[in-house]
Design brief:
About 40% of the residues lie in helices and about 20% in strands. By secondary structure, it is an alpha/beta fold. The strands form two sheets. Strands 1-4-3-2-5-6 form a six-stranded parallel β-sheet, sandwiched between helices. Strands 7-8-9 form a three-stranded antiparallel β-sheet, covered by helices on one side. Helix 7 packs across helix 8 and helix 10 packs antiparallel against helix 11. The radius of gyration is 19 Å and the shape is globular.
Length: about 290
């Protein structure tokens, strides 16, 4: 069956009901569009788990703060549809802002995960961002009622926040975290990579290289976490990055910062290195499990 393009909740619910009546399992991949191979790898992960997959494309105004790039965020709907057809996706859901927030954004009930998780890292730099994320994701869960929802590891904190929301609110959906899709030179695929000019694109892979360097350094029990983070930050600035928003080693579940690596915990993905750095005005996110 060809890709079904749906823009209204009523049409989406009708399609989902038909699939349910046929006993089919349903996957959901929430995106903001401008799809690249990283997004498509999430769709393929959902296809491996479910009979049918809904890909939502919605640039969510609730998760953008003042001065962020909501208006300029790339919207490439026709190209996105073509890419989804190429991988035999089942449905793309393109709701308007009015369809998602019929009572207006100011009157929208918000889903808020505790600040212990959302007030750190990205949440500290972008107040209210995760309230917008969890609200729209919960709405999509209720609209699609998927068996499985797939998110990308690149947005590590977002994944942790959504998993916390699902656990606390007893949402009957299985969250699958797909590994980071990278270019050949190691740069994590991102819609914002297209903002980089040619010289910045040459510098960008240093971000992942520093994560790999940190991983090796932190395996040495004599190394102090703070010193390794400081050195990596200096290396990024020396390579041409304009600013390091943060670079931290955290516990995977709580995202609390870590001062000391315990070697016995390295075998079970207990630690993660999270970094956000800027090349010019472009914020690049990456992470690496230790």
């Amino acid at each position: 069956m060809s890709l079904q393009v749906i823009q209204t909740l009523s049409s989406l619910q009708q399609l989902v009901a038909e699939w349910r009546n046929q006993g089919l399992s349903i996957g959901l991949v929430p995106t903001m569009g401008n799809l690249h191979q990283g997004h498509l790898s999430l769709v393929e992960a959902a296809q491996a788990e479910c009979d049918k997959v809904v890909v939502s494309i919605f640039v969510n105004p609730l998760q953008f703060g003042e001065g962020e790039d909501f208006d300029s965020y790339p919207r490439t709907y026709q190209q996105d549809e073509e890419r989804l057809r190429e991988i035999s996706a089942d449905c793309v859901f393109y709701p308007s802002i009015q369809e998602m927030y019929p009572n207006g954004q100011q009157g929208q009930t918000l889903v808020q995960v505790p600040s212990l998780l959302t007030g750190l890292l990205e949440g500290a730099l972008r107040p209210g961002h995760f309230d917008g994320v969890t609200t729209v994701v919960m709405k999509l869960f209720n609209m699609v009622q998927p068996d499985v929802a797939v998110f990308g590891q690149k947005d590590f904190q977002q994944c942790a926040v959504i998993q916390k929301m699902v656990e606390d609110l007893c949402v009957p959906v299985n969250i699958k975290i797909a590994p980071i899709a990278r270019d050949e030179d190691g740069l994590a695929l991102s819609s914002r990579n297209q903002y980089l000019d040619a010289s910045q694109r040459q510098i960008a892979p240093v971000l992942y290289q520093q994560l790999q360097w940190m991983s090796k350094e932190l395996l040495n029990a004599n190394q102090k976490v703070a010193e390794v983070c400081k050195k990596a930050s200096e290396n990024l600035l020396n390579a041409g990055f304009s600013q390091v928003d943060y670079i931290q080693v955290c516990q995977v579940g709580s995202l609390l910062p870590v001062d000391l690596i315990e070697s016995e915990k390295l075998s079970c993905n207990y630690y993660v290195v999270l970094v956000v750095a800027r090349l010019g005005k472009t914020r690049l996110l990456d992470n690496l499990l230790l």
